[in-house]
Write a structure and sequence with these properties.
Blueprint (H helix, E strand, L loop, with lengths): L3 E4 L4 E4 L7 E6 L10 H19 L3 E6 L6 H10 L3 H18 L15 H13 L3 E4 L2 E4 L15 H7 L14 E6 L14 E3 L1 H13 L3 E7 L3 H16 L4 E7 L2 E3 L2 E2 L10 H7 L2 H8 L8 E3 L1 H34 L9 H22 L4 H21 L5 H18 L7 H26 L3 H13 L2 E6 L2 E6 L2
Parallel strand pairs: 3-4, 3-9, 9-10, 11-13
Antiparallel strand pairs: 1-2, 5-6, 6-7, 7-8, 11-12, 14-15
Helix pairs in contact: 2-3, 4-6, 6-7, 9-10, 10-13, 11-12, 11-13, 12-13, 14-15
The structure holds one RNA strand.
RNA sequence: GGUGGCGUAGCCAAGUGGUAAGGCACGAGUCUGCAAAACUCCUAUUCGUCGGUUCGAUUCCGACCGCCACCUCCA
């Protein structure tokens, strides 16, 4: 309850209520698969993922559909330079897309429709629009007649005059109106094509999303998300096509994600200043990249830099240390409750204080996320609790194990909504199991040396392991080791 | 030219008509044989500039300066 979403259509924060109670239908514009995706693309995919996770956390049943544009001019052009087929290129990059996003911890959508698998639906939709007088055929191509939809421009707030004024657009003489856009493109020689009532060709970009969204989610969907660059013309055209065809609202909440910038300007494929997500993932753990990408509100631009990633890495380490310390209580608590009943009662003042801090965090986190998915603010509430827990952990003034176990449960669940605490662990687990006995032995030898104040041997072991990226830490309870990168 | 947005400490970044969340870095401590790690504490009389409205503005209005984006394929 209480979720507010900024709707680009009304340009206001609106109370969210789905069309069907308890269920949310969501469509997110996916990639055009002519290349790997870059971090900027990942930002939109990640925001979509987090919106979905949060809605699920709030108890909604979410159906998320994200398309793959697997036929388009760029794919054709790229395939030609690479000497491969469009379909092969699209397939390869489509697979790469799933691989990359999953590495980032983005969960698969419920449906990932591909444009090339929905040609009949698109033809139907185009035909409907022709029948309604909203489209016309020229030389085997079909254009949408913008003039036939009098609400055209309602999303981007652009008046016809404005659109024509700047007019850097090449005017296609065959169009009735420069604003008209193609829904079906007649195939040129050598291009891939599908048969249609208007001749061989391929669908335009906008019609893909209209028909795939409606096929999988119905004529009116709750949330439609995408990058802010898609607001015009892509989303405007989707509305024009869909609403004229059905006479119903196409999407109820339009969510637009701001750009990721690099050196102050937009990261974009045409700008040639992008960084592939997979390259970033090779250098930084997924949580770090996630943390960075949601460290600002999704409607504000965010500047990519190595420095920012390093900050995220440090911040996350603080979170993780806290969580890992807490986790021990969670593992031990069941045993404790088995035999000893003493820890079950006697809630001390310190317990109460921490317990209420946990509750405060929960309600503040929810409030932050309810406020148009304010992840930056939500993160703040998490870190506030981390400080409180750390202090409690250090003070050892009679806080029960159960309280800490509870803290672990709540904190980790909250982090999972943002996806910043769940991943990895397993990749090093296998080797750790093998190395464990060996390291134990080394630590034992080192401990013997230390008790005899043989610092040379002790330090030698520590230094040499350090060279192998294994770090030793001496604590009051003995020495521990871990991998460092 | 049209449209939208942004400017908060060294850096990143929330936020509100009533006196500035959080993170990183820095500094000071705790711990330690030393270290590392970890933890604690400290860090903006001030929110681009200048005006206006108000008892009171960083928050509302206006002007100006600077930056970004969309209007063309791009998440």
């Amino acid at each position: 309850m209480g979720l507010k979403i900024y709707n680009s259509l009304s340009r206001q924060l609106e109370e969210f209520s789905p069309l069907t109670e308890g269920h949310v239908s969501m469509y997110s514009c996916g990639p055009t698969v002519y290349d790997y995706i870059h971090i900027g693309n990942a930002r939109t995919a990640l925001v979509t993922d987090i919106i979905r996770r949060y809605l699920t956390y709030k108890g909604y049943t979410v159906k998320l559909v994200q398309n793959l544009t697997d036929i388009d001019d760029k794919i054709i052009a790229r395939a030609q330079t690479l000497g491969t087929s469009s379909s092969q290129l699209a397939h390869t990059n489509g697979e790469a897309y799933f691989e990359d996003t999953q590495r980032l911890g983005i969960q698969l959508a419920d449906v990932h429709p591909k444009a090339t698998e929905h040609i009949p639906e698109m033809i139907d939709l185009i035909q409907t629009l022709i029948d309604k007088g909203a489209a016309y055929v020229v030389d085997g191509s079909v254009y949408y007649r913008v003039n036939s939809f009098n609400e055209y421009g309602k999303l981007s707030r652009r008046k016809p005059e404005d659109l024509l004024a700047g007019a850097r657009v090449e005017v296609d003489e065959r169009k009735e109106d420069p604003r008209d856009f193609d829904m079906w493109k007649a195939a040129k020689p050598g291009e891939p094509y599908w048969d249609s009532p208007w001749g061989p060709g391929r669908p335009g970009w906008h019609i893909e999303c209209s028909s795939m969204a409606m096929k999988h989610l119905g004529e009116t969907i709750d949330i439609h998300a995408g990058g802010e660059d898609l607001l015009f013309p892509h989303h405007e055209n989707e509305i024009a096509q869909s609403e004229l065809a059905t006479g119903k609202p196409f999407a109820r909440y339009w969510v637009h994600v701001a750009f990721l910038k690099i050196d102050g300007t937009r990261m974009g494929k045409s700008e040639q200043n992008f960084i592939f997500l997979r390259d970033a993932l090779d250098k930084y753990p997924a949580e770090v990249i996630r943390h960075f990408l949601i460290s600002a509100h999704y409607r504000h631009p965010l500047d990519y830099s190595l420095e920012s990633l390093q900050k995220s890495e440090s911040a996350l380490r603080r979170l993780k240390n806290c969580l890992e310390t807490l986790k021990k209580y969670e593992e031990e608590t069941p045993e404790v409750t088995d035999g000893n009943s003493s820890t079950l009662r006697d809630v001390s003042d310190a317990d109460t204080t921490l317990l209420s801090a946990i509750e405060t965090m929960q309600s503040q986190f929810t409030a932050a996320m309810d406020n148009d998915f304010n992840t930056a603010q939500g993160m703040g509430t998490i870190f506030t609790l981390v400080s409180q827990i750390n202090r409690a952990l250090g003070s050892s003034n009679g806080i029960s194990d159960q309280t800490f176990a509870h803290a672990y449960k709540v904190l980790s669940e909250t982090c999972q909504v943002l996806g910043i605490y769940t991943m990895d662990e397993q990749d090093t687990a296998g080797t750790a199991e093998f190395l464990n006995p060996l390291l134990e032995l080394l630590l034992e030898i080192r401990q013997d040396a230390r008790s005899q104040k043989d610092w040379d041997t002790s330090d030698k072991i520590r230094d040499r392991l350090k060279q192998l990226n294994i770090e030793i830490q001496d604590t009051h309870e003995g020495s521990t080791w871990k991998f460092v990168s």
